Each structure stands twice: as structure tokens, then as C-alpha cells.
Amino acid sequence: MTAAPQQLLLELLDPAHRADPYPIYRRLRENGPLALPESNLTVFTSFAHCDEVLRHPASCSDRAKSTINQRAMAQCGDVRPFGPPSFLFLDPPDHTRLRRLVSKAFSPKVVKSLEAGIVELVDGLLDAVQEKGHFEVIADLAHPLPVAVICRLLGVPVEDEPKFSQASELLAQGLDPFVAFTGQAPGLDERLQAGHWLRDYLRDLLDQRRAHPRDDLMSGLIAVEETGDQLTEDEIVATCNLLLIAGHETTVNLIANAMLAMLCRPAHWAELAADPGRAPAIVEETLRYDPPVQLVGRVAGEEMTIGDVTVPKGDTLMLLLAAANRDPAVNERPDAFDPDRTTLRHLAFGLGPHFCLGAPLARLEAAVALSAVTRRFPGARLDGEPVYKPHVTLRGMASLHVALGPDEAVGSIVRIEMERRV
Question: Quick one: which of 357, 405, 7, 379 has its CA closest to 181?
């Protein structure tokens, strides 16, 4: 392999490219699968290859099975500083058991029952925006909505949300592939502190719910049982930890990314304002065009052949989902944001046994928020360029300023520049 693809992987980690990583994804995809045997890593970028890996029976999510982690365990002992992982990083039969028990809390009936509350939350947040006359999308809508929903669902006091935001911000960085691409783990000490704080907090809350159950998810996880099986305390804490981070960070990105895509193309904003029934199409195209989760990792549980590439047992497979979603082999005009496309395929929620459990809830929150904000502010326009967080995996904005009035002067300048990029 030439040096150029390896350099592109390093560029992907550079915050300077966070606002628009898609040219890098395209160049990586054009180079095909990238094998780095010295790092026990293979990077896949095409839709077909990522789809095959996600469906492959030897594709594992348990990072402890990787050659790199097994070496670390041989030298340092357990490489899981927070205890047992969530079911997101487990394989069958443990994953099957835990997902089955937890899925009861995300049944269609439960998700549907949350809709009225989500509508009420969105209306309240937009009332506040209208009253103050200016709109910062992340702070005023995209962040507080999913945080409030997941806090209500779990039974976490919403007044503790600022603490969770800080911890989540740090822990989300732990999903970035610095170790896989560079062998380094920047910010590890801070993430360890945040992880231990969050788990201690959840254990305290768990003790409270054991003594005084409520109508919330944590109480439900304590009580859930199937054929005599129950979740252990460590499993409940790991599950709540996962849901608090993944359950709001990704939905923040989905809502904000969709708003940015429409604000760069005002016709879509106006069309959704006139027809809320377009919201699901906007959401699905956003998931394809600018997905909240840009990449995922898997471990080869056995030697695997993906396309023409042989991946040794224990090697890590990095799947650049954001690159795969824009693969011209499966989506025509892949770099165009087009909610009206006749065929649309994406891997934003994964595939197979690890398909995102919270996908229906994320879709509901985003659809409600997007239809409401366009209806309330049909003349909204960009008021400055977005600022991005440093995260690679859960790529998203730190701020996005929107003007509510009809003056198009500033908005047009910003929109033209953003359209050039995206």
C-alpha cells in the first residue's frame, strides 16, 4: 500500500477537516480497502464491503478479542477500566441475552407513548427561541431535546444534565480511532475520570430505584425478567451508561445535521414547513448524506474474506460508514442532498444483530423537531458558519447560529459558502 492512503487516515483525525471530511472519505474509498498489517487493521470504505462485514457471522464487537487488546491484557491485565462493557461491545450469547431484555424498554408501544411528550418538549424549546429572538440550534434545540427525553426515559434528574453533558463529551472521544490509526490515546486520563464519575452516579441512582421504584427505564431494567433471567447491577449500569451517551449524542447530531442541510438549500426548508409529512424523508436522507455516526469498528473472530481481502483472526476492521453511504455504486449523485431520491440505502444505524436499538426513537425525535422548527420559523436562515466538535466517530457541531428574520443578506453569503463545501 502506498503512503498516501495512510496519510489520509491521519488527515481524517485532524480537526481541521472536521467541517468537511467527505473529500477524504471519497479518496479513501477510491483507494479501496486499506490494509495496515503492522497495526492489525483493515479499513473498509465501500458500501458492499461495509455491508458484508456488518452481516458476517465472524464479525465481532467485543474489543477484548482483538489482537491488540489481547497483547495489552497479557502485559497489563484487564483492559476494561470501567468494568463489563455495554451490550454494544459484546457478542452472542451475552449480546443476545442483554439486548433481548433491554429491548422491552424500546418496544414500538413505548416509543409511541413518548411522542406527545416529545412534541411538548419541542414546542417549549421553540417558544423560548421565539421569545428571545435568536437561535443557536445546538444549545436551544438539538441538545436539550434528546437529553430531556433520555433523562425522562431513564429516570435521571434533568437538573443533573450539565454533568452528563461534560462526561458524555469526554467519553464520546473514546470512540475515535486514535489508537487504531496512531497507537496513541490522547485524553485518556480525563476520560477515565469521567467514566468512573458517571458509573458511580448511576450506581447511586440504581440504589435509589431499588428502594423506591418509579415508572422509568432504570426501574424497568431492575424488574425486567424473562425465563428467570435478570440483569445484574453491572449490566444495568453499563446499559444506562450507553443509553445516556449514545441516546443523546447521536440524536443531537442528526437534528443539527438535517437543519444545516436544509438551511443550505432553502427549498427543502420551505417544503417541510408546508408539509410535515416530508420529515421522514428528510431524516433518512440526512442519515445517508451526513450520518451522526461516521465509523464503527469490528474484530475478526475468525479469519475473514471480505471481497478480495483476507483479514486475519483478531485484526480490527474499521468501517467508514460515512464513506459507504456516499458510494456511487449504490446511491446516484451521492454528494447531493436529495430527500426525493427514488432509491436510498444507508448504514447509519448499522445492520445485523447490532442494528441500533434506539433507531425508532431517534427517528421520532428528529421528525418531530424538524417539522416543528420549519413550521415555526419558515424564514430561518444561516447566521454564520457552524463550529464543529473535535470528535471523529460521533462527528457533530458545537454551535450553529440561525437568524429568524426574513433578511437574506448575511444568510445568502454563508449559504453559498456552505453549499460550495457540502
Answer: 7
